[in-house]
Write a structure and sequence with these properties.
8 helices; about 250 residues; mainly alpha
Length: about 250
């Protein structure tokens, strides 16, 4: 009797263990990607740690704006149809190229930086508002970084300009949500809270851009503050912390 009983007990235990493991697998966290570093390039030899941080932050901020452009075009397809573009992707690629090559955007009529942002969010603007808004915002952010997208040892940044850029993005988000056209409709459809659900993906993406700008402003300020402290420490150390002869 003991033999069959032990066999049944063993099979029952195995079945229970398999059920538990299956349950654990079902409740395991869903993979959401992983951190991947950029490939090393010879240009990095001319970059300090701070230069590299600024370059990566700029890259992520521009990619964030391009993601926002795609989202805005999806919610406002009438905007890209105002242009000669053959598709949403074609329209987005034209804006992306103009931003990365630092080309002016003709519908902004020569305006750059914050003047372009104001015009893009003005009710009287009749062109592709998505393209104008994204181009103007990117131009403002690049201007705040000294007009550069990549940074090297001889490049410097103004912490106050970076801080101001973050506040400009905050203002743009507010204007995007509040301003209406002559018919009382939003200039551009973005975040949505209604009976069908909540879509706050625009706010989250803008929030990331603002956070990166604020962090870079703080790091820039800290860089110069620590440089002064290190200088004083070098003087003090050279005077009072020398080794003494022992023979």
């Amino acid at each position: 009797m003991r033999g069959p009983f032990l066999s049944i007990l063993w099979m029952s235990s195995c079945a229970l263990l398999c059920t538990v493991l299956a349950g654990c697998a079902a409740n395991a966290p869903t993979p959401r990607g992983e951190v991947k570093g950029a490939a090393t390039t010879p240009a990095e030899l001319a970059q300090s740690d701070m230069n590299r941080v600024a370059t990566l932050a700029m890259h992520e901020n521009l990619e964030g704006l391009f993601r926002l452009m795609d989202k805005l075009y999806r919610r406002n397809p009438a905007e890209w149809r105002k242009t000669s573009a053959t598709s949403r992707e074609h329209a987005a690629e034209q804006v992306r190229t103009a931003i990365l090559q630092r080309q002016p955007w003709p519908p902004l009529q020569g305006r750059r930086d914050i003047a372009a942002m104001g015009f893009a969010l003005a009710p009287e603007f009749t062109g592709d508002r998505v393209a104008a808004f994204i181009h103007a915002t990117a131009d403002m952010i690049i201007t705040a970084h000294g007009g550069k997208i990549e940074f090297f040892l001889l490049d410097g940044m103004d912490a106050q300009h970076l801080y101001n850029a973050a506040r400009n993005v905050e203002s743009a988000v507010w204007l995007l949500a509040q301003r209406r056209n002559a018919q009382g409709q939003p200039l551009l459809l973005a975040d949505e809270i209604g009976p069908q659900g909540r879509n706050l993906s625009f706010e989250r993406e803008f929030g990331k851009i603002i956070a990166r700008l604020d962090l870079l402003a703080a790091l820039t300020t800290e860089k110069y503050r620590r440089a002064a402290i290190s200088y004083v420490q070098g003087i003090v150390g050279g005077t009072f912390l020398q080794f003494l002869p022992v023979r």
